[in-house]
Design a protein that fits this description.
Layout: E1 2-7, E2 12-20, E3 26-35, H1 37-40, H2 48-70, E4 79-85, H3 89-105, E5 110-114, H4 115-121, H5 123-126, E6 133-138, E7 143-150, E8 153-159, H6 165-175, H7 182-190, H8 215-228, H9 233-266, E9 272-275, H10 282-294, E10 299-300, H11 304-307, H12 311-323, H13 352-356
Parallel strand pairs: 1-4, 4-5, 6-9, 9-10
Antiparallel strand pairs: 1-2, 2-3, 6-7, 7-8
This protein binds 5'-O-[(R)-(carboxyoxy)(hydroxy)phosphoryl]adenosine and zinc ion.
Length: 357
Amino acid sequence: MLVLGIETTCDETAAAVIERQPDGSGKILSNIVYSQTDDHAPYGGVVPEIAARAHIDLLDGIVGRAMKDADVNFAQLSGVAAAAGPGLIGGVIVGLTTAKAIAMVHDTPLVAVNHLEAHALTPRLTTALAFPYCLFLVSGGHTQIVAVLGVGQYVRLGTTVDDAMGEAFDKVAKMLGLPYPGGPQVERAASGGDPKRFAFPRPMLGRPDANFSLSGLKTAVRNEASRLIPLEEQDIADLCASFQAAALESTADRLSVGLKLFEAQFGPSHALVAAGGVASNQAIRGALQAVAAKAQTTLIIPPPALCTDNGAMIAWAGAERLALGLTDTMEAPPRARWLLDADAKAPAGHSKSRAAY
Ligand code: KG4
Ligand code: ZN
C-alpha cells in the first residue's frame, strides 16, 4: 500500500510517501523535510504564529515534491495521513486540513495520526521489529518510557515530572548563549568539553519508579554558569559536557528501571527502542547501548533523520493503522494535546496540563 504522510505539528513542514508490503515491511519512496529553523532563530525558539503561516505557505509545494519524488499520483494512494496532534494547534490545523482536502478530492481514506504514535512506530519502518517493545520517547515536548504492545496499545511506564529532555537541552543552550535549536549545539560543544569538571546532580538516581526530572539539573547548570561569567569557550564546552553526562547517567538509570518494570508486566522486551529528536544525539546512543546490553536486549534507534520530525514517520503510522482497517472521518479534530496512552494517569506532582502535553 502507498501512503502519503504530512507533518506540521511544530517547525518542520514535511511530507513523504511510503510503501508498506503485506509482510509488514516498509520502504520510503520520498521524504521531504523543510525545517523552519531560520524563521524562528531570531526569536530563540519556535513562534507558533510564524510556524503556522510558514506551514500554509510551504505545505502544498512540499506535498507536490514528495509525490513527484516518489513518482506516485494521488489516485494510486491507499490513504493520506496527517499528524493531528499533539502540537502547535495552528500548524496541526494546516496539515490536517490539507490531508482532509486530498482525501476528499481523491476519495481516499484519511488517517489522523498521533505524532507520538508515529515516533513510537518508526523503528518498525526501518527494522523488522515485533511487538512488544520498550520505547524511550525523547523529544522537545516529551520524555517517556512506554510499553508498545501493538498499534494503538501503549502503556506509560515513566515520564518526566517537569521539563522534557529536549527542552532541557534547549534551555541549557539558551542560557549559555548557543544558537537555536539548542540540542545539537549542546552536543557539539560537549564533544570538546570535560564531562567531569562540574559535578552536576544525577536526578532521580536509584528511585524505584521510572520517572525523570530535569529542571534541578538545568538550574544547577544555570547557577554554575552565573558563577563563571564571563564564560570562556572552554567553560561552555565543559558545562555542556558535564550537563550531558549528568542527563545521560540519569537516563541510563531510569531506563534500566523502565526495562525492569516492562519485563515484570509484559515479559522480556523485544528491544529497547529510542525515538524522538533527542535520540539523534550520538552520546545518548552510546549510553543506551550499555543499558540494552545489561538488560540483554537489542538497542534500536532509527537513523537521525527519522528521529527528528519528518513525514515518513506519519505516513508509516498511517499505513500501520490502515493495515488494521483503522481510518478517520472528516470530523477528526486537530488536537493541541493528545496523550499516547489515553488512560494514563499523571504522575504525582505533575500538573494536568503539562502531563497532557
Ligand atoms: O522530535 P523532535 O524533532 O520535535 C518534537 O516533537 O519535540 O525533537 C526536537 C527536540 C529539540 O528539543 C531538540 O533540541 C532536540 O530534540 N534535539 C537534540 C538533538 N537533536 C535534536 N537534543 C540533544 N542532542 C541532539 N543531537
Ligand atoms: Zn516529534
